[in-house]
Design goal:
Bound molecules: iron/sulfur cluster, FE3-S4 cluster, FE2/S2 (inorganic) cluster
Distance between the termini: 48 Å
Structural class: alpha+beta
Largest sheet: 5 strands, mixed
Number of helices: 10
Strand order of the largest sheet: 2-1-5-3-4
Oligomer: single chain
Shape: elongated
Radius of gyration: 21 Å
Length: about 250
């Protein structure tokens, strides 16, 4: 959790982009709320305070409040981040909140990341492909600790969508699978239980909607709340594919 520790109580001003696409009368507009900052206050606490005391119609998503479910991602002063892991003390007295771009807007700060993530996972067939008669438990037991750690590292993705919201390519290419999708393939490539060949993975991501669409803009890696080495993974897969294309066999 980011923050500078607890200081004197401040009066916070929070500007929130409001819009309800289900309501034909609704127009996107900023609405300003004021509240007293409490010690160790997160944006999660601040938003609940606003909803409880000032406007019950304010929409935003939270499930775990612990940086695990990924549902509270939003633009915090223009930068994608997790509201439940952001201390108000790490921000100025005036804070601007807006929904993550790129995803379908449900209302106010709530977006439908799940719908996009599901479609992307289906498109990339992002699950272990294995013959039915292979004993998955045995394969798992044989995994070297170093490999298990590498896989675990990539599995830390919480599908929050911050990487897509920060990616210029995702804004330009509707079907770009983003760092989150490429990270899924990088993870499956490492998994000894997945019996697909490199050529099968390359068919899924070896084009402009995959590794060759990425322009190394690095926004994904800058904002990933799990600090995953996304660009390194993408660059590695791109190099492997280029080598395979230039020197087949
Ligand atoms: Fe979020 Fe990082 Fe996963 Fe992207 S890669 S969805 S930023 S956790
Ligand atoms: Fe986008 Fe990250 Fe590539 S920001 S362009 S996926 S390095
Ligand atoms: Fe789950 Fe913030 S509420 S990550």
């Amino acid at each position: 959790m980011t923050g500078q520790g607890e200081g004197a109580a401040r009066r916070l001003t929070i500007d929130i982009l409001r819009y309800n696409p289900q309501d034909p009368e609704s127009r996107p507009h900023m609405e300003t709320f004021e509240l007293d900052e409490a010690p160790s206050m997160t944006l999660f606490v601040a938003l609940n305070d606003i909803r409880d005391r000032q406007d019950p119609s304010l929409q935003f998503d939270f499930v775990c409040r612990a940086g695990i479910c990924g549902s509270c991602a939003m633009l915090i002063d223009g930068r994608p981040g997790l509201a439940c892991r952001t201390l108000t003390s790490s921000l100025g007295e005036r804070i601007t909140l807006a929904p993550l771009p790129f995803f379908e807007l449900i209302g106010d700060l709530s977006v439908n990341t799940g719908k996009w993530m599901r479609a992307m996972s289906e498109r990339l067939e992002a699950w272990v492909h294995s013959d039915a008669d292979v004993d998955l438990t045995r394969l798992e037991a044989r995994m070297e600790p170093e490999l298990a750690e590498q896989i675990y590292e990539l599995e830390r993705c919480i599908e929050c969508g911050c990487c897509l919201a920060a990616c210029g390519t995702a804004r330009m290419r509707e079907d770009f699978v983003g760092a989150v999708g490429l990270n899924k393939i990088a993870r499956l490539r490492l998994d000894p239980r997945d019996q697909r060949e490199d050529a099968d993975y390359y068919e899924l991501i070896g084009d402009d909607d995959g590794v060759f669409g990425c322009m190394s803009l690095l926004g994904c890696q800058d904002v990933c709340p799990k600090e995953l080495g996304l660009q390194t993974q993408i660059a590695y897969m791109r190099r492997k594919m280029l080598r395979a294309a230039l020197f087949p066999g």
